[in-house]
Amino acid sequence: MTKLRTNENHLVKIAVQGRVANAAQFAEFEVAHDGKPFALPSTGGIVYNVKTGDNVFEWVGDHIEPGVSAILDEEKRGSRANMGFNFLACVGNLARIVSGDAKGHKGVVTGHHGGVEHVTIDFAESTLAKLNIDDKILIEGFGQGFGLLDYPHIKIYNLDPAVFHKMPVRMRPGAAVEIGVTTVVPAELMGSGMGHNNIGTGDCDIMTHDPEAVKKYGLDKLCFGDFVAVKDHDHSYGRTFRKGAVTIGIVVHSNSTLAGHGPGISTVMTCSDNRLKPVIDPRSNLAKLLSIGVYRKKK
Prior knowledge:
Blueprint: E1 14-20, E2 30-31, E3 37-38, E4 68-71, H1 80-88, E5 94-97, E6 106-113, E7 118-122, H2 125-128, E8 136-141, E9 154-156, H3 161-164, E10 169-172, E11 176-181, E12 184-185, E13 204-205, H4 211-216, E14 227-234, E15 240-253, E16 264-271, E17 276-280, H5 286-290
Parallel strand pairs: 11-17, 12-14
Antiparallel strand pairs: 1-4, 1-8, 2-3, 4-7, 5-6, 5-8, 6-7, 9-16, 10-11, 13-16, 14-15, 15-16
């Protein structure tokens, strides 16, 4: 447990409710960055065999979301209510099924995916077997507004305080905070999602189409739920380049061969200067920290 002073006792916990999102096909064929057409599984649905903690490159799919994808309104994805569902659902929040054969079963929010505006949730295999597309899911939204009282220059989004306290975090001299990540990504590899102002929803993709860069930064080892650092990225009030800034994100969807795309990360921490210091730590994965996904114990 960290000893950092926080404002978590004053945060508001709000229930938001959605349902399982339908699996989507965006076109009969899409065109990859190298000009090759492909037709593969993509976003949405109940994904039975891809879990938080799995490698993001090992699946024959594009933008695959592990576990269950949830949404409030598929017809009006950009509505205030649907965006509120995304905004209030934070990584680590409790999700509870409130209808159908799996009623009462609990899971954990693992991130959100922009464009389709899905919230991703990890459930046990026994729950997935009972879950239906029409089933409703209630999330105890808690975490937006979370802050470190002695480090106001570090901004936190989309993160349940309980997860933060399990992350490898250390205080350092000069009002700096050291945090564990699985890899550090340079700013020039960030693609789709850049320029968006709403950091409380959506994600930003790591472009993985340069083989030398993938090897150099170990991107082929990325897993769903990994906490990663992006250098020279400031997500304080929107996703932008800023020399010296650091952003921490969590990997939420699989690799993509579309130009400008790749594994997506939801923002969880950001700082406009170098007082947020990433260090490589193999423990820095949500599935490992919470014993979910591939690390969930089978009953």
